[in-house]
## 1
Amino acid sequence: MARLLGARRAKLSPHFPVGGPVEAADLVGREPYVRQAVSRLGDGEHLLIAGPRRIGKTSVMFEVLRRLRRKGVVTAYVDCLGATDVRGLGERLAASLLASIEGREGGLEDARAISLGMRPRGRIRVEHLELVMPIVREGSAQRAFDAALDLPRAVAARVGRRVVVALDEFQAAGRLGPRVFDVMRARFQAQRGVAYAFLGSEEGILEELFSSKGKALYRFAVAHDLAQAGGHRFGIDPSDWQAYLDRKFDAKRISIGETEIDRILDLTGGHPQDTMQLCAALYHFMQDQSLRAVTGELVDAAYEIALRELERPFALHWTDLGGQKYLQAVAKRIARDEPLYAARADGDVPRAEVLRALTALRARGLVMRTGRGRYEYLEPMFAEHVRRLDAVPAIVLGR
Ligand SMILES: Nc1ncnc2c1ncn2[C@@H]1O[C@H](COP(=O)(O)OP(=O)(O)OP(=O)(O)O)[C@@H](O)[C@H]1O
Ligand SMILES: [Mg+2]
């Protein structure tokens, strides 16, 4: 048994994963968080997991759901960004719940086929079919949505197991209709045996939804802070990164010293996505050049590559900030460590507007306050991207 466990632990994915959610073996520094979330959801508590972009919210939730399933819990995962109307959102929820109890995908399509008098492609159990029939048969989108929202409760009652539903990018559900959140609360609040996890990136918006009096989900879920869990930046203990990077490079027979790992973490601030991106660039660069020992210069070269690779997501993120007046202007001043309030030749920003922008940037988890009138980006690579935005290329200057 001990050997088996050891073998499982040693099973690392071949690369430094970038992009989507990571496998358990590449989930750095989240063990305490995952354990707590599993136990709280298992006890029926609803959780709110809000945090800045790309810090691993979805990765954490996937691992939590895997562990809950191993304990016999029925789970569902829905990405609310993927739905274009309330019926679609309801169907996603139903499809995911059905997959969990049937142990295969495609159950909802089968149910739909049966309701139309056609032959289903797979076999679906009668008792499960009965559960989803009210949804697939319903002509009104609103009523189909309502029926889908009742499904977690119905499943818990029918199969006699706990149900945990994760709603990712939850804030996006708001654009599907004027009263979506009210309808959800009304449906969710009396469900026995069901726990909900609400995840999302637009921290400010999500928090308002759950913590402002008069908002639909006021006090419905307890915030389980991921971004600062354990008091660490992004909630990850730097020593967990140290251990992971050490082991991972070692598995690739590349040597890396503590100084170089520290350099990596200094450059990325330990931001999960940026750290992975830099390490992936470093690894591929070394592979291509048949190099076996990481040096400070190689880390710096990888940093430049990673910064270029992150240009697109960073640019999109930057455009997002353009939606609110003065946000970009203040964000630039912070990145360049310029006085925040001083009048400037390139246009003055009124003091009240600077304060408003600072509040918004903090609510988005983009900057933190480090002292009186002093702010810093949580994500140093994004700050660097912003610093370079208006920089005149060296080639133009003839350097
Ligand atoms: N704990 C972690 N350990 C290692 N890498 C991580 C971790 N969390 C996130 N990452 C890196 O960040 C990337 C994005 O992770 P994930 O999609 O889970 O984040 P997210 O917060 O859900 O992002 P989004 O804001 O886009 O929804 C992963 O592909 C991986 O490179
Ligand atoms: Mg996500």
## 2
Amino acid sequence: MVNFCPECSSLLRKKRFNGKYVLACRCGYEENNTSNEDDLKKKIEDKKNAISQNLIVIKEEDKIFVHPIVSKYCPKCNHNEAEAWQEQTRSADEPSTSFFKCRKCKRTWREY
Ligand SMILES: [Zn+2]
Ligand SMILES: [Zn+2]
């Protein structure tokens, strides 16, 4: 990746500053490198938050299931938030069935 200074169009050079890498120009212009360690940590945190908000993790004996939360209207209470998963009901040749569980009244239903 090559970056040029927006001030004087010279080639920017990477330099280490306060534990972060910044792109700096000989004219004094400095640009924060977006891939520095703090940003990376923040991105990982954001991802963790997103996962904890939209997924349900179910522990069953030695297995762990992760069920996403989807926008589905519950046929019972009309709540628009359901846990979703798929199960192979009959033979492996047939397509799996989608199951939904209402986040509010806990009703479970299926869709083919
Ligand atoms: Zn410059
Ligand atoms: Zn419901």
